[in-house]
Amino acid sequence: MARRTRPPGPLDLRSQAILRAVIEEYVVSASPVGSQALVERYRLGVSSATVRHILAELESAGLLTHPHTSAGRIPTDAGYRYYVESIVESVPLPQVEQLMIRHQFGQVEFASEQWFRLAATTLASTTRAAGLATPAKPLAAHLRRIDLVLVNERLASVILVFREGAIKQALVSLEEPTEQEALTAVADLLNERLVDRTATGAAAALEAVDAETPSGRLARRVGERIVRTLREYDAAVIEEVFSDGLLNVMEAPEFARSDKLRRVFSALENRAWLGELVGAVAGSNRVHVFIGRENQPLEMRDVSLVLAPYGRPGRAIGVVGVLGPTRMPYPQAIGTVRFVSGLMNELVDHLYA
Amino acid sequence: MARRTRPPGPLDLRSQAILRAVIEEYVVSASPVGSQALVERYRLGVSSATVRHILAELESAGLLTHPHTSAGRIPTDAGYRYYVESIVESVPLPQVEQLMIRHQFGQVEFASEQWFRLAATTLASTTRAAGLATPAKPLAAHLRRIDLVLVNERLASVILVFREGAIKQALVSLEEPTEQEALTAVADLLNERLVDRTATGAAAALEAVDAETPSGRLARRVGERIVRTLREYDAAVIEEVFSDGLLNVMEAPEFARSDKLRRVFSALENRAWLGELVGAVAGSNRVHVFIGRENQPLEMRDVSLVLAPYGRPGRAIGVVGVLGPTRMPYPQAIGTVRFVSGLMNELVDHLYA
DNA sequence: GTTAGCACTCTCCCACCTAGAGTGCTAACC
DNA sequence: GGTTAGCACTCTAGGTGGGAGAGTGCTAAC
After folding, report:
1. Distance C4 C1' – A52 CA (angstroms)
2. Which chain B residues contact residue A350 at CB under 8 A?
3. pLDDT tens for residues A237-269?
4. Which nucleotides of C are covered by protein (CB under 7 A)?
5. Residue A49, CB, less than 7 Å from strand D?
6. In this structure, what is the dihedral angle of CA atoms A329, A333, A336, A340, given to the nearest 10 degrees?
7. Are the Cβ atoms of B167 and A145 closer than 8 angstroms?
């Protein structure tokens, strides 16, 4: 038997149809699919013996597998991959649902910090999987405005507004008792010098501030805090990943025992990996699919991700998508993610138009 | 047998000691405790037969129960309640850990939006349960400052800074193409009229703005958006519940099958209930313990919560605490929650001092 | 190339058994 | 009267064995 996991290669149409049938049957039934069931439920025009023959071929090509001798076939990760790449088209979200979702987004049109949350929630309920979304993070933060508010005489709150609409806040302790007027003057000065700059630009501009006068020292101190906040903001790969509908994933029978679930949750807490994914997805404008063991951290071996970027290329990028069991209705998931990322693009466009 | 769940009543010292031994043994072993094991591991000075007798009494008092005839005893919710109320004192966190935690909080002393996240993370890792925390939400939002930034000629971003240091952002669409100068003028006007007011006060003050001039109309439009944002902020019972370490809960053997876990997660998504809890806890300055079925939503029947408020009574209140299986080391959990809520109080005090 | 037929394999489920843990009760003891 | 040893009893966990059912792979015929 030299034909052990022969590389996939192009499949003839009949084999494709059978692979497709196995996958689509398995996606709904969650249990191995036998040759009998296939001939009964799909008009393949051949007998179960022939189907068995082809199933054996698909298995030796590495696209299907066997839990044990006398069980039906289940797709491998490679099988799903072939299915997604070569067999099916994505299924667009039905018009009715598109309208409903547009309506919901209309409700939060003027609350930009809600957008990505709603995206995750929408994806979760539409695909019955977990929805994921990150806010659109600027590649390099450009200051748009600085605001200083006195909290008490030795503590000030710095509010930074970025060109992309994001906001950051930080506290600065003050060396001397200070009044709001002095702070406001410093804010005016810093607005003049630092606005429209990135972290390094702001640091350079700050050097030019006279450190001899009391107000100059105050400006320096506050300015340094601002630069540090900018640097921290730039350094964060992703600011936040919002997820919703993890309950949907818990309901899948493959996660009935909680050790598998635990793996998924611990992977979701793995910020470094999520950052990498966002990076991978942000590059192009497509919907990306990551299936089972294709995912770097082994914890994610039982789930698939369907992700798409949104935002303004080169300026601010976020990611939306779904996470579900590898046994996932990919065509629908891809269609839904495509629609939602498009919607997010429209919203973000308003900020730049 | 008329002695079916006789009300607890005061227990003699020996019964208390045995109840305590059963609970503490069960908390670490997670399996029913028999009379034999008790005499072996705790010097009770009596034989297993006597212990059996007392166990039977504790059971008829409703403090212990039996999974089945030939199994040992496990505590009931009432048993844990009696244990927490009448038998044990809370165990303070060891000095070493207190220092480590203080050090970590020192790192984020000037990043107030991190405080409650760190609280949850700290509680999770220290108690090996899930940590929960809400930001300190003002009871009624007082405006401290308004900032307007032009996004594009028909869209402006409103930034509201509250007395308590919180920030809210909203977008306003503008009826006519507008320049930043005009917006800044409006911001000055609104700052003058609306600052230090609550939602209703601001709405009243807005009435006085002349709606005839173009800038008056702009001020009205922006002002109305501000009032709506204030109202929304006030209406939200809790803004956000941050949780960390849910993995710890998943690891407990009682959640090996995922249906129980699912219940917990779905209860955590129940905002209304969390709001009620926060309300209940916010009133007094104690650590509150909610055990198993004492919790309103039946989904929470398998877990306990140990919660404490922090913040400024009458002004801004948040809640920190842990969520774990009912089989939880209560004395340690209570001690840790008490310590962390004290720490949070210190941090918040800086904002008011 | 396709199909019917068939032996084979493996899981699932049920019934059954045994060992072990722990109980409740009773009678004796201090 | 409280405490204890002894004992019969109950229930679970875990192991064994067998039968039904599903599905396979192979072979020989079409």
Report:
1. 13
2. 151-152, 155
3. 777 889 999 999 999 999 988 888 888 898 888
4. 2-5, 8-11, 20-26
5. yes
6. 160
7. no
* Average confidence (pLDDT) over A273-296: 87
Q: Which of residues 66-105 of A touch strand D (CB under 7 A)?
A: 66, 69-73
The predicted structure's pLDDT at residue A138: 83
Burial of residue A127, with CB atoms counted within 10 A of its CB: 0-12 exposed, 13-18 middle, 19 or more buried: buried
Retrieve residue A136's tokens: 């659109």
CA distances from A283 to A72, A123, A144, A287, A352 (A): 40, 22, 26, 11, 20
Token pair of A108 as six digits? 């939060």
For residue B265, give every residue at least 6 positions away whose Cβ sits within 8 Å of its Cβ, in sequence order, or none.
A246, A247, A250, B246
Which of B151, B230, B249, B250 should we substitute to test contact with A (largest number of A Cβ atoms within 10 Å)? B151
- In tens, the pLDDT along B61-116 reads 999 999 998 899 999 999 999 999 999 999 999 999 999 999 999 999 999 889 99
CA distance to partner chain B, nearest, from residue A248 (Å): 9
Residue A257, token pair as written in the block = 């025992």
**A290/D7 CA-to-C1' distance in Å:** 65
b/e per residue A208-221 (b: at least 16 CB within 10 A): ebeeeeeeebbbbb
A159·B152 Cβ contact <8 A: no
Which phi and psi angles does B128 have, rounded to 5°? 55, 30
Task: Kindly determine whether the C-beta of residue B53 is less than 7 Å away from any atom of nucleic acid strand D.
Answer: yes
pLDDT of residue B20: 97
User: Rounded to whole angstroms, how far apart are CA atoms B221 and A14?
Assistant: 64
In A2-47, which residue ranges form alpha helices assigned H by DSSP?
A: 13-29, 35-41
Q: First-to-last CA distance in chain A?
A: 63
Distance from B242 to chain A by nearest Cα, in Å? Answer: 12
* Residue of B148, B140, B191, B189 lying closest to B171 (CA atoms): B148
Chain A nearest-CA residue for B247: A262
Note the pTM of the prediction, 2 decimals: 0.90
**Cβ pairs bridging A and B (under 8 Å):** 106
Burial, B328: exposed, middle or buried (Cβ in 10 Å; 0-12, 13-18, 19+)?
buried
What are the distances in angstroms from CA A274 to CA A123, A132, A321?
Answer: 18, 11, 12
DSSP-H helix ranges across chain B: 13-29, 35-41, 48-60, 77-82, 95-107, 112-127, 180-194, 199-207, 214-235, 246-251, 258-268, 271-283, 330-352
User: What is the token pair recorded at A52?
Assistant: 């068995």
Nucleotides of D under 7 A from a protein CB: 3-6, 9-12, 21-27
Q: Cα B298 to the chain's mean position, in Å?
A: 18
**What are the tokens at A235?**
């350094």
Closest CA to B340 of B320, B322, B324, B323: B320
Please name which of A171, A22, A28 lies closest in space to residue B110, comparing C-alpha atoms.
A171
Report the distance from CA of residue A255 to the C1' of nucleotide D22 in Å, as an integer.
Answer: 24
Is residue B131 pLDDT above 90, yes or no? Answer: yes
B136: helix, strand or coil: coil
A301 in reach of chain B (CB within 8 A): no
What is the Cα–Cα distance from B82 to B78, expressed in whole angstroms?
6
**Environment class of B259 (CB within 10 Å of its CB; exposed 0-12, middle 13-18, buried 19+):** exposed
